[in-house]
Structures are given as C-alpha cells and as structure tokens.
Amino acid sequence: MAVSSQIAPEDLSRLVPICPHLIDYLRNNSTHTADLFLQSKAEDYEKVDENLRRFLHEINNKGDITLGNLQKFCSEDEGGKALALSVWASAVRLIMTQATPKLISARLGSELISTLQTLNEAATVKECCLILGPLLDKLPRKHFDALGEFCALIRDTASNTSIMACLVGPTLILSTTELASPTIHASSIIAAAALFDLLITIAEPLFGRSASQRTYHAWGSFRRQDEVDQRVNFHKSLVEPKQLVLKRSLRAFYDWLDPACAFHVDTLFDLYPFQSIATAIHEKYTLLPPGWGELINALGHKINFGPEDFKIVRGKISKQYVDEHNRIHPIVHRNVKRVKVDDIIDEIISNERLFHDQINAVVEYFGVQLREIVEGRRGEDRRMGLSLDQDEVEIICGGSLRAVRNVSANLLAKLEVLSLVKTNPVDAAGRAELLVGSYAEILREMRGSYFPFVGGYSKAANLISKKVEELSKLKKNKQQYHFIRIWQIISNSLDVLQGKRLDSLLIKPVQRVYQTKLLFERLLKEYDKLISNGSTGTSKCMKDLKKLCADINTLATDLNKHMSESKKTQGNPSMK
C-alpha cells in the first residue's frame, strides 16, 4: 500500500518513541483529542511532513530530542507560527500506521485475534489481562509505550470509543497483506475492531504504568459523565458546510485504512453523489467513515452494519454480521449507457489490480517468510534447507520488485475514482480523461522503477533456474524447506497466485507494459469511433490519449532494449 507521506517508513519508525510525548501534548491542549482523528484536513499533510522532518533532523544531528525542543517543535513551526492540533493528530496517525516495522507485527496481530474466543469466556478484567499481557510483552518497548498511551488517550477523550476502534483497530492489528486485499473478509474487520475496543477499555491494568501514569491529574484524568455528554455529538456540531465535514471524515477514514486514496476525496465528491460514495465505501471496506451511517440512513438507505450500529463488550459483538449481499438496500442510479470504452477502461483497471496483488504476494507474503527463515527466526533446520542467503533473497523479491509494487499501488490509488463507485460519473469521455490523466502522471515513476527491475531480472531468473535444477537432485527428505517448495505451497494456497511458478511472476512487470500498450491502443481505436460518430468525447482527450499511447510504446521499446543488454551481460535465463 502507498503511503501519503514522503518520509520513508523506516524513518517514521525512528519517531515511534516520541509518540507518547505527542499524545501527551495533545491531551493537555484539548479535552476531545481523540475526535481529531475522525477528521483530516488536506492542508495538514504538508505541515505534518515538514515538522516531522524537524524531529528527524534533530535526532540525526544530536542523537535524541530534548524535552525543551520537543515542546517547542510542538507549539510552533520553524517560522514561529502556531501549529493546529490537527497537525499533530495527523502526525501521530502517520507514525503509528505507516512506520516499518509495523507497530503490531502481522504474526502478533494474528495471535491477538486468535484470543477473542478465550476473551469472550473471561469473567474479569484480570483474566483478560492474563490472556493478552504475555502477547503484548512481545512488543518492543517503544511500540508498547506508544500503543498504551494511544489506547488510554482514546479511552479518556473519544466521544465514541467503538467508532475509534472500528477505524483504528483493523489498521493496527491486521497485516499489510490483509488490508491490501480487495476481498478482505468482514469477520477480520470486526475481530480487529472488537479486540482494539477491548485494549482501549482495559488500557490501565493491561499496559500498566505506561498508560496509567498519564491518567492522573498531572497528565489528564478520567472524564466525568457530564464531559462525555457534552462531547458525544462533537463532530456533528461543527459549524461548517456539510460536504466539507463529510470530506474531512472520509479523508480521515482513508488516512487510517488506505492512505494513498486520501488525496482523491475532492475528486470523488466532484464526480459522484454522496449516496453512491457511501455505498461503494461500505461494499469495499465493510465500514463507513464516522458519522456517515446516520446520515445515509436518514436518506432512506438503511445500512445494516457500521461503527454506529454495534457495541463491543470485552471482545463480544452484540450484533451478528448480516449476509454480505443485504448490507445496504439498493440505491437507484441514473441509467448511463455503457460503451466499449467503458469495458476497456474496466479491463485496464482490473488487470492492474491483479498485477498489483500478485506482485504484492511475492513481496509481502513470500518475501517476509524468506527473510524470517534466512535470519534464523523459523529455526536452524529451515534456514539450512532454504538454499538461499540474504543477498539471494533480495535478488528474488527485494527492493527493485518492491518499487514496482509501490508504483502499481500509487496508480491504483489514482484510479480509485474510477474503480470505487460502480456507476459512471460522467459520460464515457469523462472516464477516459480520468484514466489517461492517471497513467500520464505515473509514467515517470514507472520508468524510474522498471529499469532497475529489468536490469536485475536476468540475474534473478538465472538464480531461480539454477536452484530448480539443484532441487531436482536433492533427496525428498531434503526438499521440504527449499524455497521453491515454499513457493509452491504459497502459490497453490493463495487464489490470487493461481498456482503460478515464481519465474512466471517475476517476468510479469515486463509483460505488463506490453499488455498495457495493447489495451491503450484498443482504447484509442474505440475512443476515435466515439469522436467520429459525434456521440461523445473531446478532442483534448483524444490528443492526450495519442500522446500517452506513444509514451507507453517508447517505454516498452526502451525496456526491451535494456532487457537485451542485461541478457548479454548476465546470461540468458533458462525458464524451467
């Protein structure tokens, strides 16, 4: 998944230790701090990056940040201007959701969710702590402190902790691969939300001094009931245009669950009615942005599940999730005639999504397992039987393949306005303009990531070919931990991989450029027919489409030349 910040995820990880202090600053300056996480302002993004870089600069130069500078950086920017609290709320969200390694690792998240049934049977808070405590003890200290403070902050300052649990829980607890999956199951979302709601509820006894220290008067205190009552409708009382509030709520929702899409909120509202956006968001993510459920229900489109519609008590969900096909009563859309241009656009987007998911499986699912094994975290027998060292793991599924995946993720985020809502925003020409614009913007990134990948492809393919031959000579009892066997198990178990061989997936980035070229040539032909028939279309879009086709053709030709040169220097891989 693409990040909404220009700061590297590894650098964000270095800022995790300051999260408790940022949370402390927010707590001391607002009695409804947690509600700041329910809205997001586009104008804050640049300020967040700018001010987090100040922290990184201080750490790079001095090794740490003094408390005096920490307070100074929080209260004003480099020009001495006061910073809005929403900037620091966005900073906390960015660090906690996009730092690498994740605040809660994929394995630990899975272990935590697996305790839900046992937690349901726990009779006391102490029993819950005895179940969760040993698992949370596996967290690095800085991650433990940040998570504890964050849970305590939500408990003390949120208008509705269940809404926050729905928004935050899936992002922090589910793996990156699960969150990126277009078919993520509703039960996973619910389980993560339920578990996080429990972490919030029992934050003090569970996290101990880390969280409880800041619940006394010097650091904030538990809310009185009258304060709760005053803030319950905080986000509804904003004296702002309704659409602006909805946009900020959707932007915050994306910031937590799908950051790259947050930049396209304004475009979505320009192209589609609110009801269509809400339906599409709910179908994709199972949840709705905070405050949306009540509004869409008032418009007569009942949503059967959402953060406002269920309550979690110690991990128990009081409402069963209803059948997926009955979640939202149908909304009647205006009838827009589809043409072949629409079908080609949908095919381009569908191909891009499949490509992304397959490459992501190699990078995140297969690659993560290989690294854990080669580092000895899965046992010495597995490490010795893998038949790869760290450098070879990087050759097969390292940085260059990850860069290709990231470009695809960025492109899919740009195409969100075409793929999210299933109805036409305007006529077919309008969809084509949006598609052409998105691809034109991404071509430079493609060139920057594809050339390094193609340059190293022959080396990776030769390595795999050599290892396949090596595997065939091993006795059966020596083959079980070999990386080719591991890939075969993964490829056959994941629907998106369809049992494909590893070498056939590694060539996909090269093949994908040629497939895209052919699809856009078909689109150009059909769009030209629309123009000729006088039915729809614009001359500007036609001109841009022709230029894009020429640019993609140039990229394909250049990549082919680069591939040929690489084969001469590295050898022609034998694709077994």
In terms of per-residue confidence, which ranges show pLDDT below 50 for 5 or more consecutive residues? 209-240, 304-336
Strand coverage percent: under 5%
**Number of helical elements:** 29
- Termini gap: 32 Å
Could you describe the 3D structure shown?
It is globular, with a radius of gyration of 25 Å. A two-stranded antiparallel sheet has the order 1-2. It has helices at 9-13, 19-29, 44-62, 67-75, 85-98, 106-113, 116-121, 125-136, 141-157, 161-173, 176-180, 186-201, 203-207, 209-212, 225-231, 242-257, 265-271, 274-285, 292-298, 340-374, 380-385, 390-397, 399-414, 416-419, 428-472, 483-493, 502-506, 508-533, 539-570; strands at residues 312-313, 316-317. It is built from 29 helices and two strands. The two termini are 32 Å apart. The protein is 66% helix and 1% strand. The relative contact order is 0.08. Helix 9 (141-157) crosses helix 12 and helix 20 packs antiparallel against helix 23. The chain is mainly α.
